[in-house]
Write a structure and sequence with these properties.
Length: about 425
């Protein structure tokens, strides 16, 4: 770390009344839930399932190095976490079981995932979880919890129940609530006549799935909406209005995925609005390009706006920051590392804003000052503060980071 540059940065921020050390302390305490599925293109380890995704989501690209086994994925994750400052979480999907058995999805047990918990304990990580309602013959119709066939609905309800049970055990074992996020692909390619009936079925299935009460110290349930997906262009049963209402009425977390809204909607704006009605929020930080394309997040205006709202709205204490992107055209470990760090960089920038000064200007309707200050702040030396943060946390930046990422990638390229 360049001590002189850091000292100069501390002074530059102090000049605006911002305490750099306080910002760094807060940043160090923010855990991000890193999604397992960036490491293997959402394929998972279910025997007999070779193609990833389904349900309208898709990782594209054939860059070498895709993790093919739980051990490879864990090795890649260890490398990635080693290059991300701070202590974080792993977000697992039910299709990432680690067992020689071939359990049906409605017969999953904790034991099928216990190796992940052992590994999480060894690495000081906490776990989150997701039932997998796609890439399965009983999801081929793009209907699961809202399927007109009760047997199929029941199967998926049982799957969801198993996952909640497993997630609660994760939370108990690791001493931190596991967020279990429910996303179903359900919808119609062409205009349905039974939207109402489909939504009633989804609600009924969710109610049944969520009947068992778990200690919130172990398990938190979240529901994730979507605007549309490939193959479900005309109607998504679990739309935003559906889940917003559901989360408010039933007391679940609401998951906001940045790729699940109209391209011109401002997702950051939704945080303060929904937080008046729901207790806790789960974010799926992502980057849609023209559609829900799940590009790796950049340090761009959208991400910065999210981070600003989390900090300015004092929402960090009740928002779970999860990532949801998958790109198979670049190094998967680089995607994890740089994507996660971008979220942290955005949070750091937000924490370094002189919010009281901006608020005072705004409340006095002095929009000119708000405008001038906001723009002047963009020239402050955020990079020097970030470098100090990484240095203190023992992770590289700049060319060293590039070379470490490349060395690791070269070591996994033989996987094909
Ligand atoms: C799909 C949802 C969902 C998935 C993961 C893999 O559109 O965003 O969160 O990406 O469950
Ligand atoms: Zn998502």
């Amino acid at each position: 770390m360049n001590e002189q540059r850091f000292a100069a940065a501390v002074d530059a921020f102090a000049d605006w009344g911002v305490n750099v050390e306080a910002a760094l302390d807060r940043l160090a305490g923010i855990s991000i839930s890193v999604h397992c599925w960036q490491g293997d293109d959402v394929v998972g380890f279910e025997k007999g399932v070779t193609a990833g995704s389904g349900g309208g989501i898709q990782a594209t690209g054939n860059f070498p190095g895709r993790a093919r086994t739980p051990d490879e994925l864990r090795k890649d994750l260890e490398f990635a976490y080693g290059n991300i400052p701070g202590k974080h979480r792993l977000n697992l999907h039910a299709s990432y079981l680690d067992t020689l058995e071939t359990p049906a999805r409605d017969a999953l047990e904790y034991d099928h995932f216990s190796s992940w918990v052992d590994w999480a304990k060894d690495n000081g990580l906490r776990l989150d979880f997701n039932p997998t309602f796609f890439a399965h013959p009983l999801a081929d119709d793009n209907l699961t919890l809202s399927h007109p066939n009760k047997d199929i609905r029941d199967f998926w309800v049982r799957h969801g129940e198993r996952c909640r049970d497993i997630g609660a055990r994760f939370g108990r074992e690791l001493g931190s609530p596991c967020v279990d996020n429910i996303w179903v692909p359900d919808g119609y390619k062409d205009t349905p006549v039974g939207r109402m009936a489909a939504r009633e079925r989804l609600e009924d299935s969710l109610d049944r799935m969520l009947t068992t009460r778990y200690d919130p110290a172990h398990l938190l349930d979240a529901v994730e909406s979507k605007l549309f997906g490939i193959g479900v262009e005309a109607c998504t049963v679990g739309s935003h209005e559906f889940y917003l209402g559901y989360a408010i009425r039933k007391g679940t977390l609401l998951c906001l995925d940045m790729g699940h809204f109209h391209p011109t909607e401002n997702i950051a704006d939704k945080l303060s609005a929904v937080s008046l009605s729901v207790g806790e929020i789960l974010l799926h930080v992502s980057r849609p390009m023209r559609w829900d394309s799940d590009h790796v997040i950049l340090l761009n205006d959208d991400i910065q706006a999210m981070a600003n709202e989390l900090v300015f709205g004092d929402l960090l204490g009740r928002t779970h920051i999860g990532l949801d992107f998958f790109d198979a055209t670049i190094s998967r470990t680089a995607a994890w590392v740089v994507g996660t760090r971008n979220m942290q960089k955005a949070l750091l920038r937000a924490l370094l804003q002189p919010i009281d000064m901006l608020r005072t200007a705004e409340d006095a309707l002095n929009y000119s000052d708000r405008f001038v200050v906001t723009e002047e702040l963009k020239d402050l030396p955020y990079g020097d503060v970030w470098e100090a943060f990484c240095d203190r946390q023992g992770v590289p930046t700049g060319k060293t980071l590039l070379s470490d990422l490349n060395t690791y990638q070269a070591s996994v390229a033989h996987r094909g």
